[in-house]
């Protein structure tokens, strides 16, 4: 991989108290691609994902060592502006975390935090743009005042993605974003991710191996806090370098 990576980790360790949850992770994630992080439950996938926008800082007793370089800057430096980091590196969770507010106010929420509000017309324009990007504008444009929690789960997850998009991020982290959805909705979200990768760098945690194989360009396989293997998805799935990877993808454990 000769490309300049969008995200690079160097010797990344993360401790929860005394417990070493990430062990010397060295990883180069290319830009404008979909990278899947796979591995059995409890192996550190979510922890690694949360490192990329320093969400682990919100958990007590965590300690991080090493480097995480995004666009040439080590985001672990103490002077990193966490508010702008989390705008640049947005996150979508397993359960759609829509707020108990209207669709309109769910979307306006992030704009307000980041002081991106410039008059009502611009707000509506960016809300419309976000909903268009996730394929919801036509169905919701006349219902923006409805409570977002009345939407179907897939619509809620799309809304969460729109809420990230309207902040104009570079990188979108998705932690098992389809695990609450049915198979049809899952495929439609995967299609959406394919469209988004033209503009954004996507990192998706999944324990659905078919999803990783279908929907990602690169795959990292984690096991017990280590990155066992990282490479093009095709290679990792058809010709893994490590026996552990081979055993995992052929369903011997996990
Ligand atoms: N807030 C926390 N405090 C202590 N240990 C944690 C915390 N979050 C996760 N862990 C531990 O770190 C390991 C990795 O967890 P996690 O990143 O959630 O794994 P995964 O997403 O792959 O299931 C697990 O052993 C888990 O128990
Ligand atoms: Mg997890």
Q: How would you summarize what this structure contains?
A:
Helix content is 36%, strand content 25%.
Textual characterization of the structure:
The chain has helices spanning 45-51, 82-88, 103-113, 119-133, 137-140, 153-165, 183-196, 209-215, 233-238, 243-249; strands at residues 7-16, 19-29, 34-38, 62-70, 73-74, 89-92, 171-175, 201-205, 218-223, 226-232. It has 254 residues and is an alpha/beta fold. It has a 6-stranded mixed β-sheet with strand order 6-7-8-3-9-10, with helices on both faces. Strands 2-1-4-5 form a 4-stranded antiparallel β-sheet, covered by helices on one side. α7 (183-196) links the parallel β7 and β8. α3 packs parallel to α6 (153-165) and α4 crosses α6. The longest helix is centred in the middle third of the chain and has 15 residues, at 119-133. The two termini are 29 Å apart. The relative contact order is 0.18. Adenosine-5'-diphosphate is lined by residues 16, 19, 21, 39, 41-47, 59.
Helix percent reads 25-40%
Bound molecules: adenosine-5'-diphosphate, magnesium ion
Provide the gyration radius in Å: 18 Å
Q: What would CATH call the architecture?
A: 3-Layer(aba) Sandwich
Task: Please identify the oligomeric state.
Answer: single chain
Reported by name, the CATH topology is Rossmann fold
How many separate structural domains?
A: 1
What letter string, H or E per element, gives the SSE order?
EEEHEEHEHHHHEHEHEEHH
Number of helical runs? 10
